[in-house]
Design a protein that fits this description.
By secondary structure, this protein is α/β, with parallel strands linked by helices. 46% of the residues lie in helices and 19% in strands. The protein has two domains: 168 residues, Rossmann fold (3-Layer(aba) Sandwich), CATH 3.40.50.2300; 146 residues, Response regulator (Rossmann fold, 3-Layer(aba) Sandwich), CATH 3.40.50.2300.
């Protein structure tokens, strides 16, 4: 039988249970995951990120919490989102696009940052070197900018009669827009192609861009790598089909939505690697000593059904070259 003193002691202990539970909950690290994509478009990237985390022993909801900030192309929100994460002292900031990586770098010198960026992070000022980043920032460099010329060449191989190519950029994402406009004209000259530039950062502006390229009788469309533009992949596929425009994109999701072709880094593998680095940092690794990973997995995807609708006969050589052919 429990005596009065023992009973009081038990009550006193019970009174501390909620406090203990709260303390344990507070000890769980929080990771801020910032992406420019929409909720729907970021589902698979988030799953790939969690897969990387899981591989290091961290399971969301058990021993790590992940806050997802999906900006849906609203890049003007980046500074405020990053500042809030820094203010609340999250354990790590993980981001999949350049604007957020640069904002985070400017906002803190102590909170670890893991990025996935398409340009040279040394030139961007994110790290001092690829081998030894120094400071609080490291991540994955996936060569979207560097492979744009290759993607243009594949579009030319797929649609050899296309001479006038409209290049669509998102001016709200300056680093990648500038890289696109730097890389593509030179590649186009080498292929004997004529380039016109269109700009769009809203769904309405995408509609207007298609109206312009139809009016100007462009033969094909080249879409820059951009989270917002990827999130509008169904709109692109619909408009391209309506106007009979062959279009080249960055990632397989755009081809799965009905786009003609894509070529670029395997973005899901990039997200997985970001998750791996976040898990290692949670285990005590220092970003300054973690080399920037150079992504080496690339994907070439063709949608045969879209090609048939557009009246394009895909050579067997390109089908064999493709990593995936969607029937």
């Amino acid at each position: 039988m429990i005596g009065r003193r023992d009973f009081i002691t038990l009550l006193g202990g019970a009174a501390t249970w909620p406090l203990t539970a709260r303390a344990q909950q507070a000890a769980i690290p929080i990771v801020g995951f910032v992406t420019g994509r929409s909720t729907e478009a970021s589902a698979r990237p988030a799953a790939a990120f969690r897969k990387g985390l899981n591989g290091t022993g961290y399971v969301e909801g058990q021993n790590v919490m992940v806050e997802y900030h999906r900006l849906e192309g609203q890049y003007d929100r980046v500074p405020a989102v990053v500042a809030d994460l820094v203010r609340r002292r999250v354990a790590v900031i993980a981001t999949s696009f350049t604007a957020a990586a640069l904002a985070a770098k400017a906002a803190t010198t102590t909170t670890p940052i893991v990025f996935g960026v398409v340009e040279d992070p040394v030139k961007l000022g994110l790290v001092t070197s690829l081998a030894r980043p120094g400071g609080n920032v490291t991540g994955i460099n996936f060569f979207v900018a560097e492979v744009m010329a290759k993607r243009l060449g594949l579009l030319h191989d797929l649609v050899p009669k296309a001479v006038r190519i409209a290049v669509l950029v998102n001016p709200a994402n300056p680093p990648i827009a500038e890289a696109t406009l730097r890389e593509i004209p030179e590649a186009a000259r080498g292929l004997g192609l004529q380039i016109s530039v269109l700009k769009a950062s809203t769904p309405r502006e995408i509609e207007a861009a298609f109206a312009t390229l139809v009016r100007d009788r462009a033969d094909a469309l080249f879409v820059m790598p951009d989270a917002f533009l990827i999130s509008r992949r169904v709109q692109f596929a619909t408009l391209a089909a309506r106007h009979g425009i062959p279009a080249a994109y960055t990632v397989r999701e755009e081809v799965e939505a009905g786009g003609l072709m894509s070529y670029g880094t395997d973005s899901l593998d990039m997200y997985r690697q970001v998750g791996v680095y976040v898990g290692q940092i949670l285990d005590g690794a220092k970003p300054a000593e973690m080399p920037v990973v150079q992504s080496t997995k690339f994907e070439f995807v063709i949608n045969l059904q879209t090609a048939r609708v557009l009246g394009i006969e895909v050579p067997n050589s390109l089908q064999l070259l493709a990593d995936e052919v969607i029937e």
